[in-house]
Amino acid sequence: MTGMTSTARPFLNRRLADFGTTIFAEMSALALRTGSINLGQGFPDTDGPEEVREAAVRALRDGRGNQYPPGPGVPELRTAIAGHQRRRYGLTFDPDTEVLVTVGATEAIAATLLALLEPGDEVVALEPYYDSYAACIAMAGAARVPVTLRPDPEQARFRLDLDELRDAVTDRTRLLLINTPHNPTGTVLTREELTAVAELAVERDLLVVTDEVYEHLVFDEAEHVPLATLPGMRDRTVTIGSAGKTFSFTGWKVGWVTAAPGLVSAVRAAKQYLTYVASGPFQYAVAEALALPDTYFDGFRADMLTKRDLLAAGLTEAGFAVYRPAGTYFITADIRPLGAALSEKGDGFAFCRSLPERAGVVAIPNAVFYDHREAGAPFVRFAFCKRKTVLEEAVARLKALAG
Ligand SMILES: *Cc1c(COP(=O)(O)O)cnc(C)c1O
Predict the structure, then answer these.
(1) Phi/psi at 37 (nearest 5 deg)?
(2) Where in the chain is the domain with CATH 3.90.1150.10?
(3) Which of 180, 187, 170 is nearest to 123 (CA)?
(4) What's the CA gap between 183 and 357, in Å, rounded?
(5) Tens of pLDDT along 160-210?
(6) Which residues lie with the beta carbon below 6 Å from any ligand 1 atom?
(7) CA spacing 20 to 30 A to 23: which of 41, 78, 177, 370?
(8) Is the pLDDT at 5 greater than 70, yes or no?
(9) What residue owns the CA closest to ligand 1's atom 5?
(10) What is the pTM of this model?
(11) Which CATH number fits domain 23-48+296-400: 3.30.565.10, 3.20.20.190, 3.90.1150.10, 1.10.287.1770?
């Protein structure tokens, strides 16, 4: 694929041959070398709530989770995850049979795909992809079938082409892999789009894996609709969540799966041989985090909204065409309005390689998230989960592009 720049790797097997190193390593090194502000990688530069951090300290001191926690996750956390899904979405899951704690959403994705896919199966996934999807599909020996989210300048968003989705499904399709709110485009799939996904899944009897790690980062009028809430979906959907993005503790690596018992058992079978268990004390802290009052979630969203608006305005002023995200903490911008010379003829790779020298800011070329690279060529991604002063400085630097 796609997500990676390849170097010669004489030992790497064929399944992973295209997955040598990620673009993030290259761009982060470039940021360091040039003293640039790194808006490439999507992690916050401040920690989450103090009381949640203290809860982890307490668990560690009290000896909770310092030894192997139970395989499915500590009961307190499984109960908290089930409670969260019930309160927010009216979805009921049995904490004992329908919830599995994983090592971040990353392990949830890996274990789910390794458990559910046979070699030769096809996975229909939304392009641009989060980078681990393609690698995990490859590790499972399956094939990915991309459906490209298309920029719609009129709606100022990337949208799902429902005919294209329908045409991508074949007799070999095992599952649909969905991500909403969507990284990197910032699209939040509408109820109408998701209803069409659900109808297709029911009609073709497909499983659906849905990555909803940005469920709490939804702005303006947009609404996060969990796929599992739609008719016919609860028992054919594996929903993936994570504490990393919602609570700004990406280093803790606490994620989860909610699904019907048969699916959870299958995912657990793979998960137990990947890591067995992890993050013991952090699991207790995340259980407390999920029970925080709405004021936490509202405040977090409001803070990110201010940051989105700050960066979106700065990018617009610098000359980019901005697709204002309805969700996530990423902005995808089109570089072409900057002009042929400044935008490196619309080549996002060349643009991101020269941006640190030109403006002291690092972004990621969206093309790395595509199989159809040409479809992603003119787009670049900026993360806005950074301190306000950092974003202000980035915006000031980017003004250099406008002359
Ligand atoms: C960050 C991210 C993940 C990984 O989450 P972890 O909990 O850190 O493993 C998965 N999916 C998407 C879309 C992400 O942006």
Answers:
(1) -80, 125
(2) 23-48+296-400
(3) 170
(4) 26
(5) 999 999 999 999 999 999 999 999 999 999 999 999 999 999 999 999 999
(6) 104-106, 130, 179, 183, 211, 213, 242, 244-245, 250, 253, 255
(7) 177
(8) no
(9) 105
(10) 0.96
(11) 3.90.1150.10
